[in-house]
Here is the input.
Amino acid sequence: MTIRIPVKFLLFLSISFLFSCKSEKQKLAEQITANEGKLFNDSTKMLNAAVANDELAAYQKFVSRFPADTSSPGYLFKAADLAGGMHRPREAARMYKELISKYPDYSKLATCYFLLAFVYDNDIKQKDTAKIYYREFLEKFPTHQFAPSAKASLDQIEMGLSDEDLVKMFEARLD
Here is the structure.
């Protein structure tokens, strides 16, 4: 005895199945959007560490799986920023470098150079590396809004001034 299933029913099931399945890219993008709304605790405004870890992983997964997608540079930028906020400066620096090398036309490329220098200067405390990136930033983006800050930071490093020295200099100017 054979069971006969109408062709229309099989076609309906096939189409329903296709439309009910979301692509991996769509699922990741939806997860990222949902997590972005939960990154900070509503009452304390503190970073939710568990959500932040999940979000960082989701950003990186999206970028590694879909590097040519137009969302990837933005997600990588957000991932670097989030890593910095999570006190993971080496990870942030690695991501800024990746952005610079893989997405040379990214609209926030200048900011990536500046933040890379800043992370090496203030968080990783590798002043020689910071100088390299501050100089590169100033060569490539001399009129950028961060140029005066980059120049001041570079001067501070080259003069060997500590933060305390700078405070004393500013206080002396106020007197």
The CA atoms of residues 6 and 97 lie 58 Å apart. Confidence is low (pLDDT under 50) at residues 9-20. The chain is about 70% helix and 0% strand.
